[in-house]
Amino acid sequence: MSDTATLMDSYTEMTELLLPNDTNNLGRALGGAVLHWMDICGAIAAMRFSNHQCVTASMDHVDFISPIDLGEVAIVEAFVFDTGRTSIDVKVDVRAEDPRKGEERETTTSFFTFVALDDDGTPTEVPDLDCPSQNQQALRDAAREQRREQLTAVAEKIEASGE
């Protein structure tokens, strides 16, 4: 195993056409379908990064920013932005594209943590994240900051509710 892998080694993009089977009664994407696509895309990014099978350990708060309508294309992007000893943090974003108009908009975002497994199914060490270009460094730093802000906001909501 290599001691390092780059953010771009993990970069993954998938596209899905929103068909009736994945819509609700309003003709919009079911949240569960979107989460399914995000989990798959994130897992592929983690596997590309680590060269190991990876399993989902957690998913942070999910923001559904805008709906995806029937007939639109969902573009799911994922990349590794941080690592632990056996864990891999992945940012996953979804955009909707209206292919007839050529317009795109942000729809969903979240952060996933995956664990790399060896051939026996035991957690195994992952490479360190290397960001050799300024663009990769900026993506990593923005993802880390966005996650930090999101976790702080969730903690503040919990504290304010008295739970």
From TrEMBL:
GO molecular function: long-chain fatty acyl-CoA hydrolase activity
Region Disordered, annotated ranges: 123-163
InterPro entries to which the protein is assigned, alphabetical: Cytosol_ACT (IPR040170), HOTDOG_ACOT (IPR033120), HotDog_dom_sf (IPR029069), Thioestr_dom (IPR006683)
One Pfam family hit: 4HBT
Domain HotDog ACOT-type: residue ranges: 8-120
Coiled-coil boundaries: none
Keywords tagged on the record: Hydrolase
GO biological process: acyl-CoA metabolic process; fatty acid catabolic process
GO cellular component: cytosol
Superkingdom to which the source organism belongs: Archaea
Signal peptide (residue range): none
Basic and acidic residues bias: start-end ranges: 141-163
Protein name: Acyl-CoA thioesterase
Source species taxonomy: Archaea, Methanobacteriati, Methanobacteriota, Stenosarchaea group, Halobacteria
